[in-house]
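PT: before anyone asks, these are the final sequences, not the draft ones from last week. 935 residues across everything. Please model them as a single complex and drop the result in this thread when it's through.
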Amino acid sequence: MKLWILAFRNMGRNLRRTLSTAVAIAAGFIGLVLLSAYIYRTKMGLTTSTVYINHKGHLALFKKDGLEKFAAKPSKYLISREDQEKLQVILDRHPDEIEFTGKYLSGTGLISNSKKSIPFIGLGIEPVTYAKIMHHPDLMRWTPDWIFPETIATSNDLALNPNLISITAMMGELLGKDLPFSQYQGEQKSLQLAAKSYFNDLNANNVELGLRHTTGIALAEDTSLIGSLATFQDLYATDGIQYWALFLKPAASVAGFRQVLAREVKQAGLDLDIESYNGEIWGAYYNGSMSFLYVMGSFFIFLICGAVLLSIVNSTTLGIIERMKEIGTLRAIGFRPKHIQSLFWRENFILSLIAVFSGQVISEIIALIVNFAHFQFEPPGTQGKIQFMLATNWKICLVMALFLLLLNVATTLVVVKKITRPQVIKLLTESGA
Amino acid sequence: MKKYILSISLFALLFGLELRADDQKNTQKEDTLAISLLKASDEARGSVTEGLVWDSQIETVEDGESNTRNFVVKAKDHDAFVEATSPARNKGEIYIFNDRNMWFYKPSLKKPVSISARQKLSGQASNGDIASTHYARDYTPTIEKTELLSGEKFHVLMLKAKSENLTYDMIRYWISDKTKLAARAEFLNLQGKAFKIGEMEYGNLITTAEKKVPFISRLTITDAKYPQNKSTINYKAPHIEQLASSLFNVSNLSR
Amino acid sequence: MIPPEMAPSKMISSDLIVQVRDLYKTYQLGETTIPALRGLNLDLQAGEFTALIGSSGSGKSTLLNLIGCLDEADQGQIKIAGIDVKSLNENQKSDLRNRKIGYIFQSFNLVPVLNVFENVEMPLILREEMTTAERKDLTEAALKDVGLEDFLKHWPDKLSGGQRQRVAIARALVTQPALVLADEPTANLDSKTAHMIIDLLLEMNSKRGATFLFCSHDEKLINRVQKILRISDGKIDGITAINSGGR
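LR: through. Structure below.
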């Protein structure tokens, strides 16, 4: 305790230097918090977009090699009705982990307004799953810009009318259909989908215009189409599905549950692959974006920590040099080298703690102002603007605070150890004792 | 000396102009020949002004699996009406060709669907391959060379698509000098590489108002990379028939 | 852990507190080697009040620093209360300084951010076996001995030179060391205060029974010691015993 008191009082010996060091640490911590807030917000936005808006689920079960080969040979890599029934039994065992599930079938084809056809990349969804996804709280929290209020409001319509399809405004424009799509009635809302069925012949069916969505990705915006699973199964002439997505409860561990599921699927004799939303191929966009952000973040963390470290090294070195005689005196009355180190790390620990706390408060204020200001920006590769948000997360802040504290303490220990190594007499005479 | 140089220059200029004029005359002559060859070969592939009806059977072998589909093709001028007759799953499906536009319809559909001629109909056969051929209308031909195949002289034409919505971008086309019938086609991608090879046989005869003309009896389309994958279109019972224009009217297909 | 040989009971029982044999120490000043001690021998008995005198550069401070384990000899042996200093590692030397040696500096060397009580208590906080109450008792007793019981909460910069040196004396004695070393303890004090400090040192010597060894040029102090060691050219070249001392 006495060492803590001594350490605390020592901070007041050169207030200007202590203050400048504290400002450097606080500024560094603010930088870390805001950077992490941006990365965290982006991560959560991308996770929500990948899992829910892009319908990948936290986990998705494919026929073995189906993820890569389904597009080339869909009929071979379908999950058959028989396999679906076996899988249902397994999934029913896990109500604690699974919030809800959805069966999907994707494919390409043409959408026609009877005058012209344009290509689509479509996704067939179970209508109930579609409604659950659109009403999921994560969407409201993290990706409100990428979901139109009307999309949410009309999301139950698919269950009432499985012939409905959801298209983007851009696809509507290409088909000569203006917003809102609800203005079209009767024949006007009748559209046709045509595609090569799994029997290798051309097939087509009737659908109705009614729903609207956005992909959030510019490249996908003019081809994206969502419809009911039944519509797609009819179009491709199959009762199979491409994948079965699992939407997990917040407390469930994606990686952990994946292992459990893999074991049970294998035991059931099912030849399935389980992909997670952040996988290299299944979650390629998520994975690529996050990898880039992590690299960028690491670079900035390196710069920030470097600046903070230099500041700590500088102030600690000056502090030691100024107090050489005092350190010698303490050594002379019996302080071991570790006691001296402990004295200095305590000093920097207290200083860092105060700086980190202040930094946290300032960061929260900055985040509040930024979020309140509703800045809009258009990230590259995305469709339309989204709000520039800073979302601080107490767990990440705590980890970073601990990291910074640890880094400062470790740096202090190294500097003190190096400088206070000489004989006691040298410490005492360094400043003329 | 100056006069001498001037005379040589003038001679060279006049000679050069004369040569260029000769080249242009030759090119025009070749273009005319290419177009006439193409027109003649198109006739034997259904491009006739009268109504023409035939049965078409497509046998496809792909990745070790084989299937057969049957159609009735009714063609007149630049239009065609193709109806699937078997297998049962496809019975009643209709393809309508209006000039270069193509439509698909089946009884359950409320409206016909506009489709592309390039899409695969069955195996190697694209939608555009099933109906009558109008290469003289759709492609710009140039004669690349002539060559002998089994002792017969063939003009090798390079056909370049006049518009984007055609079945193929480029075709290398072998037309017999003697019979004016096309015997072989290499369907090329934009890089000029063959991705499908077609071989035609003419075992049918049709009688038009004016004359009897040979008509295609078999078109074998083989994948250039995987030759085991091929589709054979057999043309059976071709005959001239009066066809009403309303048959080709897409709006008549809507429910 | 306290090594058994550092236990207080053993400290008191030993008669020979300091034993120095063939001690050599040189300093390097650029390319020049300066010999400070040249085979010095010395014995100090428990409870002695001894002054180390000699001309400037004779090796007084060097000897004091070596005995106080603040520096390392090039050659020779130093035993403090029977413990060979050379055999100790850095931590053991720290413990030896804490438990057996008290050091009084010429310029007091108080920690400015600690008050009088805390400065004196400082050596005791390293004693893990000691309770807060025990520390408090010992600290207050030490400060009472030097007459500063009313200045516990005062800050060093508010004290006079004499008071500061008394705090330094209390800090040196609070651990009840066997040996107290002082380097020119009165050099920075006026004559009156120096007298008071000398009286105090003598009183502590008699009251606490600790062995005192200090180097000084101060005649006032030298005249009141029991024993004077004269050092010249890095060796003890004379010992003068004054039985009555100044007491």
